[in-house]
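Protocol step 4 of 5: obtain the predicted structure for the target chain.
Materials: sequence only (see below). No template structures provided, no constraints applied. The aim of this step is simply to have a reference model before the mutagenesis design in step 5. Sequence pasted as it appears in the construct record:
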Amino acid sequence: MLIELRIQNFAVIRDLSVEVGSGLNVLTGETGAGKSIIVGALSLLLGERASSESVRTGADRAVVEAVYDLTSEPQLRARLEELGLTGDEEFLVLRREVHSEGRNRAWVNESPATAGTVGELGRVLVDLHGQHEHQTLLRTADQRSILDAFAGAEDLSSKVEDLYGRLARLRSELEDRHARREELAAREDFLRFQLQEIEEARPEPGEDREVEEELARLDHAEELARETEAVHQLLYSRDGAVSETLARARDILRRLVGFDGELAPLGDRAEELYHQVVELGRSAGDYASRVEVSPSRTEELRGRSDLLFRLKRKYGPTLDEVLAARDRLRGQMAELEGAGFESEALERRVREAESELRDTAAELTERRSEAGVRLAEEVEGLLPELGLPGARFAVRIEELESPEAGGAERIRFVTSLNPGFELRPLARIASGGEMSRVMLALKSILARQDRVPTLVFDEIDAGIGGEVAVAVARKLRDVANHHQVFVITHLPQLASQGDHHLRVEKGEQDGVALTTVRRLVGEERIREIARMLGGDPDSATSRDHARELLAAG
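Step 4 output (structure tokens):
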């Protein structure tokens, strides 16, 4: 619920902090004192457009800030988490700034936000009824929600919305599948050609490197054979080869060891070198004997290298990418070949989802139709005692061609507030007071089901008095048992019913008009009620009458 409303430099308000309690809060004051200005400031937090003209004379900006208690609002806390605007889990602070040069800024829990986000959150917490374009009764989606709450069909309505969302996703998936199939079908010949081109080549991972290495060997085969044979002879096979020289050195060292044992390690090293040179020379000879000069193999490899080069230039630039392209083309061909079967399965799921949506929406329609009749009867029964004799109210259910997220019908609240006039949408009612009383009738019926914690009624007392005023006050008290209610009034019958009484006062400071708000208790409240009764607030008779009203409340 709303805890505090802070206003700075807005119209004639310089610096104001209004603390609001639970139950019924009444706001009174002389005509022109600024009561509606406070409501106008609050409306900024509900999404109403901000005007630089609302900035107080001499100030550079106006600030409106509201503090809400979220302890009973888990859904709103979840929404704040979705928006990344988490803060204090117990409180929510919404803030709008209007600058004199026209700029506007907004915050949620000290985090910058858009005015739209502030309005979205504010409307979850506050319903403002009067001459305000964003009030609940003017929005068809909210009229539908009111009817569903009255019908006890909110879970069913949510199910319809979920089913419609699921159906929309399935239809979108099927549409994408058809578009994909058409795309692949249009390219089938080309895809098949590309796949055949790669598969006929049968490339293997790393094959291009192996081909280039073998080609390099074949291109230099004669030189490789000649030079490795030379190494073979130099080290091992010719007279005077390195191996013979090492053998003589080894034999000399072996003989000399008998004269000096220190030469033994040198002999061992000579022996080791001899065997290494022999092995190296023989290996070079073996290699030379294996070298093959093959013009036909060279030509074959050149052809293979050219083929792999063309594939890499077309699908590469690497052979790994050529192989990846082959796998991708195989997948696309398999997708094309299986697209018909998959589409059939998806079409079957779409038909099943459509059927379930129709059946559930039909059940919801039945619930709404029955509830619409009952709601209209109950509202019509209350309107006369709220000062609207002869008024009619109806819930118009207009069938749609097919179910949507909100159901299979459009819900419209229609009314005629004067005998002989046709029923028309509530949005076309001119009087904010009449609109507020229609809403009060609805809220009194839906008091327990309605989830909006704070209700603000502006102009609800326009054109009423006497017994009607008493009836309106009684209904406001009933609604205040389940909601926080804030009502701006000129009627003592309404003011006397409040749990909390605030008085708006207009004065002057430094030659500029100034509005303030005071909480009234005790004798001050008695004097205010006496003033509202039209008598002298200082007379004993007027004060006694005021006490009677307060006692009756």
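Step 4 remarks: The chain has a mean pLDDT of 86. Residues 207 and 319 are 8 Å apart (CA to CA).
Proceed to step 5.
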